[in-house]
């Protein structure tokens, strides 16, 4: 019974982590699916969202939940400006060019964060998140449960926005054929900027959720760039709902590795899953992703 309880607890931990991975990856999937830009600065947007929550809670005394819309607004504005004034100039160019440009942006953001806040690790202390739900032999940290629920909620909300709103129809039309959308009066440059802003804003909220339970520091972005890329490929490039399945696959695999092997192998597991998917299921777990 103890072995079974340990396995169930491990699966619970993996599922809780999966929700955060899905939230951290959905912005990357959205941006690539619409504009074809593979954003190497994605993890740094997550990092900035985490710092936004840390400083709002620690310095301004803002309630952690209230930092989520603030983080979204700040990162949406940054993402919109980056796309409109810089990345729009790479449209129609090879994928490598946008990758190099966003890599340069990531270096600027990391070094700016280091200048402003140093490389120290910081923790957000939230009294009501230091509790856990006890369900028999199972422990569910409240901070991770809330982060998972909000993360999955953002994926569902973004899917609804794309499917059921006028803005979503313009985004989908631009992703399918920007020249035809332009003939119908849709500014593809504006739509690309809004899309990047949405992706950046959601990534910022994901960073805020991570700050609820994990340390915040300037170099954290690289790890979440790798995890987000793995989740997007697992779920299918450009297929928004697929990030939930990709997050589940990665979260559960890492939880099993940390429980039965060692925590230091989590990155190795991510790359191993990435290899398996690219080798045998290049369109993702659901078979609906873009093949590049």
How would you describe the overall organization of this protein?
With 292 residues, the protein is mostly helical. Strand 1 and strand 2 (138-141) form a beta hairpin. The model has no long low-confidence stretch (mean pLDDT 89). It is 72% helix and 3% strand. A two-stranded antiparallel ribbon has the order 1-2. It has a single domain, classed as ABC transporter involved in vitamin B12 uptake, BtuC.
What attributes characterize this protein structure?
292 residues, ABC transporter involved in vitamin B12 uptake, BtuC, two-stranded antiparallel sheet, 11 helices, 2 strands, 3% strand, globular
Q: Mind telling me which CATH architecture this is?
A: Orthogonal Bundle
Approximate helicity band: over 70%
Overall number of domains: 1
> Oligomerization state of this entry?
single chain
Distance between the termini: 47 Å
Secondary structure category = mainly alpha
Low-confidence stretches: none
Secondary structure: elements and pairs:
Layout: H1 2-35, H2 42-58, H3 64-85, H4 95-117, E1 132-135, E2 138-141, H5 142-164, H6 166-176, H7 178-183, H8 188-211, H9 220-235, H10 242-260, H11 266-280
Antiparallel strand pairs: 1-2
Helix pairs in contact: 1-5, 1-8, 1-9, 1-10, 2-3, 2-4, 2-8, 2-9, 3-8, 5-6, 5-8, 9-10, 9-11, 10-11
